[in-house]
Write a structure and sequence with these properties.
The complex is a heterodimer.
Chain A: H1 25-46, H2 68-78, E1 82-88, H3 92-102, H4 105-114, E2 116-122, H5 124-127, H6 132-140, E3 148-152, E4 158-163, H7 168-176
Parallel strand pairs in A: 1-2
Antiparallel strand pairs in A: 1-3, 3-4
Chain B: H1 3-13, H2 17-28, H3 31-36, H4 49-56, H5 61-66, H6 68-72, H7 79-111, H8 118-145, H9 150-171, H10 175-187, H11 195-199, H12 205-227
Helix pairs in contact in B: 1-7, 2-4, 4-7, 4-8, 7-8, 7-12, 8-9, 8-12, 9-10
The chains are: A alpha+beta, B mainly alpha.
Chain lengths: 195, 238
C-alpha cells in the first residue's frame, strides 16, 4: 500500500483528522496503567487475610457449616435462604475463597446471620466417588466447576449462582445481589483481605 | 467516533436477516419466564451477551474480506475513528435491544399485576450497557485480527484454551495458571456488577479495574492492529 496521503509530498491535502494511522497513545497508556493496576490488585486480592484475632479457629473456617438435613430444617424454621458452597480440597480458588471469606470471623458471622450455610465437598478425585447426597446436589444444581456458591430458598429453588472466585469484595457484591442485606463490608473500613 | 459510520453500521447490522433472527431469539425468548412468572423480576431476562455477539460478529472482519474497508478509508476517516465507530454502534445497538426488552418486560409485569421495580430495571440496564460496551470491545479486537466471521472462531478458540488451561492449573495445583486462565476466560465477557453503586456496600475495585483494563486494552490493540494492516485491492486475505 502506498504511504498515507498526508505523507505524499505536494498536491494531496493533509488528512482533516490528522494522520489516518495515528495510534491512540493516550488510550494505550491508560490501558497499560489499568493492566498494571489489575495485576497488583489481583495479587492483593489473592493474599490471605491477616490471622483472625478473635473467635475463629486458626486455619479453619469461621463459618459453622450445617449438615444438609439440619440446614434444610433451619432454613424452613428461620425463613433464611440456604447458601451451598460446592467445593473441593484440590481446587486452589476454593482455598482462596475459604481463606479470604469463610475463615474471616466477621464475614462468617454476617453470612451465618443471613444464610444457612451448607458445604458440599467433592471427594471424587481423592476417593473415586462422592457421597450420594453430594452427587445428587451437584446434579440438581448442575455444578460443573469449583468453587460454586448457590443461594436457594428452603424449597431448593435457586436464586443466585456464583461460579469461580473473583475476590472477597466481588463475592460479597454478588451475594448482596440476592437481595439479602449483608452488613459486612459496609460497616468495616476495609475488607480484611486488603489489610 | 464518526456519526455517519455509526449509523451505517447500525443499518448494516439491523438489515441482516440472520442477525435479526438471532437478536429476536435471544431478545424475546427471555420474555417467556416473565410471562410465566412476572414476579421473577428483570434478572430473569438474563444478559445481552449473545445479542452483542450477534451484532458484533464480523464488525471489522467482514469489511476487510469484502473490500469495503478500502473504500471507507479512502474517505477522511482515521482508522481509530473507524474502530471506535464500529464499537460504539454495536454497543448502542445492543443497548437499544436491551431497553426494548426491559420496557416489554415491565409492560408484561404491569399487565400481569406484578410490581415493577424500577431500581432493578435501572440496574439491569446499567449492567447490560457495560456488558455491551465490553463485549463490543473484545469483538472489535478479535474482528480486527480475523477476516469475515473469523472473530467468532477466535473467541471460541480463546475460550476453549482458557478453560483447558484453568482446569490444568486446578489439576496441577498451579494457582497462577488457574487464575491467569480464569482471568482470560472472564475477559472474553467483560462485565461489571454495579449493584454496590446502586445499593451501597463495598465496591469490588479489582472487578472495576479488570473491566476497564479489558475494554481499553481491546480497543487500543484493535486500533493498533488496524493501523498496521496493509490494505490494497491487490492484497489477498484482507
Amino acid at each position: 500500500m502506498p504511504p498515507p496521503a498526508t505523507d505524499v509530498p505536494g498536491g494531496v491535502p493533509p488528512h482533516p483528522a490528522g494522520s489516518p494511522r495515528r495510534d491512540p497513545v493516550l488510550l494505550l497508556a491508560v490501558a497499560a496503567l489499568l493492566l498494571a493496576l489489575r495485576v497488583v490488585l489481583g495479587f492483593h486480592e489473592a493474599r490471605p487475610p491477616a490471622a483472625p484475632t478473635t473467635g475463629a479457629l486458626s486455619g479453619a473456617d469461621a463459618v459453622r457449616w450445617r449438615t444438609l438435613e439440619a440446614g434444610l430444617v433451619e432454613a424452613r424454621a428461620t425463613n433464611r435462604p440456604m447458601l451451598y458452597d460446592f467445593t473441593a480440597d484440590w481446587c486452589p480458588p476454593c482455598r482462596s475463597l475459604q481463606r479470604q471469606v469463610f475463615a474471616d470471623p466477621e464475614a462468617a458471622a454476617e453470612i451465618e446471620s443471613r444464610f444457612v450455610p451448607v458445604r458440599v465437598l467433592d471427594r471424587q478425585r481423592e476417593e473415586g466417588r462422592n457421597a450420594r447426597w453430594v452427587d445428587s446436589l451437584q446434579a440438581r444444581y448442575r455444578v460443573n466447576s469449583f468453587p460454586t456458591l448457590i443461594v436457594t430458598d428452603a424449597d431448593g429453588r435457586e436464586s443466585t449462582r456464583i461460579e469461580g472466585f473473583m475476590g472477597r469484595d466481588a463475592t460479597f457484591g454478588q451475594l448482596r445481589g440476592t437481595g439479602v442485606s449483608l452488613r459486612w463490608g459496609v460497616t468495616q473500613p476495609a475488607p480484611t483481605g486488603r489489610r | 467516533m464518526n456519526l455517519a459510520l455509526v449509523l451505517a453500521t447500525l443499518r448494516q447490522r439491523f438489515t441482516s436477516p440472520i442477525r435479526i433472527f438471532i437478536v429476536l431469539l435471544f431478545g424475546w425468548m427471555p420474555m417467556l419466564p416473565i410471562l410465566l412468572a412476572p414476579s421473577a423480576g428483570f434478572a430473569a431476562l438474563g444478559d445481552c451477551y449473545f445479542i452483542a455477539l450477534a451484532l458484533a460478529a464480523g464488525m471489522i472482519g467482514q469489511d476487510l474480506s469484502s473490500g469495503i474497508l478500502q473504500l471507507l478509508l479512502a474517505r477522511p476517516v482515521t482508522r481509530a475513528q473507524y474502530v471506535f465507530s464500529r464499537w460504539g454502534a454495536v454497543a448502542a445497538g445492543t443497548f437499544l435491544i436491551t431497553v426494548l426488552q426491559t420496557l416489554a418486560a415491565a409492560l408484561i409485569m404491569a399487565l400481569r399485576g406484578a410490581p415493577v421495580q424500577w431500581d432493578q430495571a435501572a440496574l439491569f440496564l446499567a449492567n447490560n450497557a457495560l456488558l455491551a460496551l465490553g463485549t463490543a470491545a473484545v469483538m472489535a479486537l478479535l474482528s480486527s485480527l480475523a477476516a469475515g466471521l473469523g472473530d467468532l472462531g477466535l473467541l471460541f478458540l480463546v475460550f476453549i484454551s482458557a478453560q483447558v488451561l484453568e482446569k490444568l492449573g486446578m489439576l496441577k495445583s498451579w494457582e497462577w495458571l488457574a487464575r491467569g486462565a480464569g482471568e482470560l476466560s472472564r475477559g472474553l465477557k467483560p462485565e461489571l456488577d454495579l449493584a454496590p453503586f446502586f445499593h451501597g456496600g463495598p465496591v469490588a475495585w479489582f472487578a472495576v479495574v479488570s473491566y476497564l483494563s479489558t475494554v481499553t486494552l481491546c480497543l487500543g490493540l484493535a486500533v493498533m492492529v488496524m493501523n498496521r494492516r496493509e490494505l490494497s485491492y491487490a492484497s489477498s486475505g484482507n
